[in-house]
Input
Amino acid sequence: MVAPKPLCKEVKISVPWGHIAAKEWGPANGRRVLAIHGWQDNSGSFDPLIPLLSSDLNVIAFDLPGHGCSSPKPPGAPYRYFDWIADCARVVAHLGWEKDAEGQEGSGFNILSHSMGGAVGMAYAACFPSEVNKLVMLDIIKPWVFDMSDFSERVAGVIRQILDWEASLSAPPRSMDYEKAVTMLVERSYNNSISDQSARILMKRGAAVVGNGPQVTFTRDGRLRISLYQEETNDQFKMLARSVRCDVLVTAVDGGLAWALSPEDELNEFIEIYKQNARSFELIRMAGTHHAHMDHPEQIAPLVSRFFNSP
Output
């Protein structure tokens, strides 16, 4: 049954460098769902969707470090793919949602994820298969990998960008008019996938007023815009995908990133891996944009609810 959910409440989870901020929706004793947003978004990404899901879900949507209201990583510390997995583990440990290899503790939980959050969710489900019952990946099939043919040149470029960013820390953060910030968020999204309305939702956690206003600055860490050091390869990600044992639902939007991040043969290979190793696998191809779950949650919610409610 779908029913209006009460307003969510804010949660803070202590970590060695500060805190991870989260929003908790639904009853504390409800079916557990961990929601992981995409790159440079924040947990507000799920605000339009969660109220349309079953009312008995206990959803924890958290801001990845350096996003939204969560603390950035310490100066000098990069953002790496496997660190995001560890951040999920920190949140799960704080919530007490772990389950041992025999499944003796708790009843596990589901993952609702979008874009980069889907890549992180897939890896978490692979690393901790006894904990995850169901995995939803919105508009992502596999993690993106860099072309390794120019690896040394790319790493050198990343290092220069990091040094330039560190040299800029003494300057005040860039600020702008709120409406200009909204426009920038829309125009710089993939294929303009973030609508004006969705941008304003993300801005609730993604922007902070400078002084007494009216200027604002983005709260996300500027280092996120620097291409990541990435040692991971397709072979490593395939090994992770082979370890996913839960039920998997993938929505792939024709106008989104799922089909654009990787060559078709790589995508098909991962699809076959999920089919062969996951408890069940379903791929739903649909029209829309990368942020369809924000702009058209009424289309996504029935798919997610049916999947979470299935045996």
